Amino acid sequence: MRLGVFFRLDDLSCLVLDLQMSSLDPYVGFADGASRSTRNIASAAWVLFDPSHRLVESGGICLGPATNNVAEYSSVIALLGAASALGISRLVVYMDSQLVVSQLNHVYQVRDPILLRKVLRVRLWERHFEFITYIHIPRAFNSLADSLANYVIEWHSLH
């Protein structure tokens, strides 16, 4: 939002200052991955809200064969890519994967080489943000991203 401010200088001229208004409130993202070993398919989904809690974007992708942890990381990578493309600089990411949240918050080490590659991709995306944090939530509070991830799997299983 742009705000024009007018000042009178000696009653002779008018100065217009164009100030860029920016909110310090972060955007909120929910990310979730899903994997079905019986169908050998996985998906990643994300939902993004602005600071006023309005839906900005949501999406989901089919990953093909992948573990649940790879799917969880893929959902974070997709969310960060979408947020960065929209020019978002402050983001809070909510996930129901305690492992992924703890690894991204440097609480747990990453020992699996496949997951380490995903972590490094997340770290590259994090450079696009002034502020980013990851918060673990119960699965019940991540129902929108969870439903979207499951929908992607079901859709690809049927088509």
Characterization of this structure:
The chain has 159 residues and is of the alpha/beta class. The chain starts with a strand and ends with a helix. It has 4 helices and 7 strands. Helices cover 35% and strands 36% of the residues. The protein has a single domain (23-158), classed as Ribonuclease H-like superfamily/Ribonuclease H (Nucleotidyltransferase, domain 5, 2-Layer Sandwich), CATH 3.30.420. The protein has a 5-stranded mixed sheet, with helices on both faces. A two-stranded antiparallel ribbon has the order 1-2. A hairpin with a 4-residue loop joins strand 3 and strand 4 (41-49).
List keywords for this structure.
5-stranded mixed β-sheet, about 35% strand, single chain, alpha/beta, 4 helices, about 160 residues, about 35% helix, disordered N terminus, two-stranded antiparallel sheet, globular, Nucleotidyltransferase, domain 5
Estimated structural class: alpha/beta
> What is the distance, rounded to the nearest whole angstrom, between the alpha carbons of the first and last residues?
44 Å
The count of β-strands is 7
CATH architecture: 2-Layer Sandwich
What is the domain tally? 1
- H/E order of the elements? EEEEEHEHHEH
What is the CATH class?
Answer: Alpha Beta
CATH topology: Nucleotidyltransferase, domain 5
Quickly describe the structure:
With 159 residues, the chain is of the alpha/beta class. The chain has a single domain (23-158), classed as Ribonuclease H-like superfamily/Ribonuclease H (Nucleotidyltransferase, domain 5), CATH 3.30.420.
